[in-house]
Amino acid sequence: MIKIRIFALNGVSASLEPDNDSLVNALGTLSLSHNPAAKSNSSQVHAPKAASSSSVAISAEVAILILAMRKLREATVASRRRDMFAKAVYFFIIRTTIMLGHPESYHPALLYLFRRIHPSNTLSNEEKMEFVGYLVLDLACRQNDLASALHVRCLYNHHSQSIDTVLSALIHGSWLQYWNARTTTSAYERRLMQWTDERMAGHAIQCLGKSYLSINKTFLERCTGLEWEILKDTGKISWALDGDGETVIIKPIKKK
After folding, report:
1. Using one digit for the tens of pLDDT, what is the confidence trace for 190-201?
2. Strand order in the sheet with 214-216
3. What is the separation, in whole angstroms, between the first and last Cα of the chain?
4. Which one, of 106, 108, 152, lies nearest residue 129 by Cα?
């Protein structure tokens, strides 16, 4: 019976691996009220809207799912299991709750995975690289703690070109490098990066505001990852469009 349960959970966990886009994308459509904003062009912040009955139903279903996973995690901890079943449980919980944007679930699960399970039941190199990467991104993006992120990276000897690029972009404030890094990261990594998307968009706006008198609207949207209407509706900028509707006036030239 135990072997059957392990096999079944391993099957579900495998379906959530980063290269399985169908189920990962489906999970990405679900969210809780405190999630990072849903994105268009990799990052959008929508104006508040009245919650529809369908969105309320989804939130209720997600809350039930998270509660069930919390009970499963607590039962695993209480039983002090460190076997393959415990690993499969934590892989499933971490991957799922990352896509749901619920750090209260995935962050303690990541810590337990490396502090308790890994010393007793060593993760493979691929598993370690994947989940250490999630912990590094959570520290760097959500908690804005780059020192701890770099410490964890060195502690577990983690090497990933995509995650190293994200860290470099955050350290140097390079919004261009940051947005380009999104094309090389997995769905889970992009989900974790969402916690800092708004901060990097604000940094891009500051850089553009200090560098240009006017810019193309499409270029502005590419730099910030936000559409023009969203930038205006959320009050992120006070700039105006020129008469052609394609040029953003940052600093109007005063006529003599």
Report:
1. 999 999 988 888
2. 214-216, 247-249, 240-241
3. 85
4. 152
Average pLDDT, rounded, for the chain: 81
Q: Is 222 helix (H, G, I), strand (E, B) or coil?
A: helix
What SS3 class is residue 244?
Answer: coil
Residues sharing a CB contact under 8 Å with residue 180, sequence separation 6 or more, in sequence order: 165
* Across 222-240, average pLDDT: 83
Distance from C-alpha of 184 to C-alpha of 177, rounded to nearest angstrom: 11
CA distance readout (Å), 129 to 132, 133, 138, 223: 5, 6, 14, 30
Cα 181 to the chain's mean position, in Å? 13
Q: What is the pLDDT of residues 105-134, one digit of tens each?
A: 999 999 999 999 999 999 999 999 999 999
**8 Å CB contact between 223 and 175:** yes
